[in-house]
Amino acid sequence: MSTARPEAARSGRGARRKPDGRMPLRQHIRELRNRVLLVAAGLVVGTAVGWALYPQLFAALQRPVVELARSRQLDIALNFGGVATPLDLQIKVSLFAGAILTSPWWIYQLWAFVTPGLTRRERWYTLVFMGAGVPLFLSGAALAWWVLPKAVGLLAGFTPDEAVNLIDAQVYLSFIMRMVLAFGLAFLLPVVMVGLNFARVVRGRTWLAGWRWAVLLAFVFAAVATPTADAISMFALAVPMCALYFGAVGISLLHDRRQDRRTDAEPPGTSAEVAR
Fold first, then answer.
1. Is residue 83 part of a domain?
2. Nearest residue to 257 via CA among 204, 209, 206, 207
3. pLDDT of 44-102, one tens digit each?
4. Domain for residue 175, yes or no?
5. Which SS3 state, helix, strand or coil, does residue 167 take?
6. Of 96, 183, 193, 229, which is most buried with the most CB atoms under 10 A?
7. Domain total for the chain?
8. Is residue 190 part of a domain?
9. CB neighbours (10 Å) of residue 149?
10. Cα(79)–Cα(102) distance, rounded to whole angstroms?
């Protein structure tokens, strides 16, 4: 008895795949379940590493507050408002570190789910877009890390001279972690766009037709995501997002042109499986 069918069932890729690389809805759900389980397993490993590195991570996260208290001589500090708050924060920070550390793993799983029907000739693009997706995600996270200390300094600077600013540690750290992940995912969006194009779900002309909405949404997201009121921080996020969007549109248009030429060059009746 052949073992190809059980292996295909476990991986979500099998004989039920149609010639164009598409799968029935049940196969898509099974593929999604398998990818989510793989992401969860990687996140558990990354969280364990984050748990071990928690003292260093917490020191880095609270550094903006500490430096602000020293440089401006403000009475400002993080406040743990409950008995279980330190444990709760350690779990959250460990999960946050796990998401950052395992970003190559879950970005690959996302790419593999979005583009299951690539031909053999196109599958080498996985390495190319992994090489682009991971640095883009980390660049977005680094940009958020650069903006946030300035935001903390600006907002905390409104504290009156005779007042004490005790910042709730839960709110502060959750805010920082959400912003870092939001910036990273925003920079990862072009990779998803190109992946959908390579999977023949969305054509480049469709992405191009919505460029006005894309630019508007990029600036709206930047205005909401950046906690400061200055335009420099907003443009620091919105301009790279727009540039990455148009870069993804350009790659999608080139891919569509290449696919159209390949389709026109194929003799009638040629199966798409020949290229696989």
1. yes
2. 204
3. 999 999 999 999 999 988 888 888 777 766 778 888 888 888 899 999 999 999 999 99
4. yes
5. strand
6. 183
7. 1
8. yes
9. 15
10. 30
